[in-house]
Amino acid sequence: QVQLQESGPGLVKPSQTLSLTCTVSGDSITTNYYYWTWIRQPPGKGLEWMGAIAYTGSTYYSPSLQSRASISRDNAKNMVHLQMNSLKPEDTAVYYCAAKAGGLSVVELSSARNYDDWGQGTQVTVSS
User: Fold this and answer.
1) Contact between 95 and 71 (Cβ < 8 Å)
2) Torsion sign, CA atoms 83, 81, 107, 44
């Protein structure tokens, strides 16, 4: 089990770029078979998988967000980052970092229910 803590700005203006960080403790983000993901939940809606980065460094994205989102990692600091550009008010949501230890297929990666460890989430509001 790992502990995850999201951090980032709570308020972002439309058209700006969002940068979020997930600080991981309890294990290394490069440990075999770990997958690290970003999931968000807009107000009144369900969980939306955004993308993931594997222990290998390979990245996977939701087709709907692939053109705007980028996931990276800092191995030395044990952090996973999310950047998303061209923000819109509909990007307002609680953003979660989550992790899964174990093999996941590409299909399984995109299901929030497959992730075992979650951060508490961070609210991001897109508004001028």
Assistant:
1) no
2) negative
